[in-house]
Amino acid sequence: MIDPISATFQISSNGLSAQAQRLRVISENLANAQSTGETAGSDPYRRKTVTFKSEMDRATGADLVQIKDIGQDKAPFRIEYDPGHPAADENGRVKLPNVNTMIELSDMREANRSYEANLKVISQTRSMVLRTIDLLRSS
Q: Tens digits of per-residue pLDDT, 27-63?
């Protein structure tokens, strides 16, 4: 028989781990939002993306979220005219990362809320277990 308490802790802890990894990738994207190539005409930083997958844990029978892949966004780079920039090509155009700060901030808020929801589940489950133990002691 599957222990629902253990399964709840495991599901939530996997969710915490997945969202923490997602937050790290978002932070890297934000940190590199203005990182250009090092030489004239070279490609700048390319936005990273996180893909999740559902994986069943055989021990508990619970569906757990896992990181499937950390890929790269294939969206085109932004181009700006800045002939004095060291990464400018012969026409004075500089390729900038395909990172949209507003999208990253929105993704960060969503990942943060998912992280907090998993923390809340762990907290509530722990509280429920402690109350059950208190009830058993007083019986």
A: 999 999 999 988 888 899 999 999 999 998 887 778 8
The amino acid occupying position 50 is V
DSSP state of 115: H
pLDDT band at 123 (very low <50, low <70, confident <90, very high): very high
Total number of domains constituting the chain: 1
Distance CA 30, CA 77 (A): 15
For residue 62, which of 110, 20, 107, 13 has the smallest C-alpha distance? 13
- Sequence-distant (6+) residues with CB within 8 A of 39 are 86, 87
Tokens matching residue 122: 């762990």
Backbone dihedral region of 117: left (phi > 0), alpha (psi from -120 to 50 degrees) or beta? Answer: alpha
The boundaries of the domain holding residue 88 are: 4-138
Q: How far apart are the first and last CA of the chain?
A: 26
The Cα 126–Cα 41 span in angstroms is 55
Residues 109 and 127: their CA atoms lie apart, in Å, by 27
pLDDT mean across residues, the chain:
92
With contact defined as beta carbons under 8 Å apart, do 47 and 99 qualify? Answer: yes
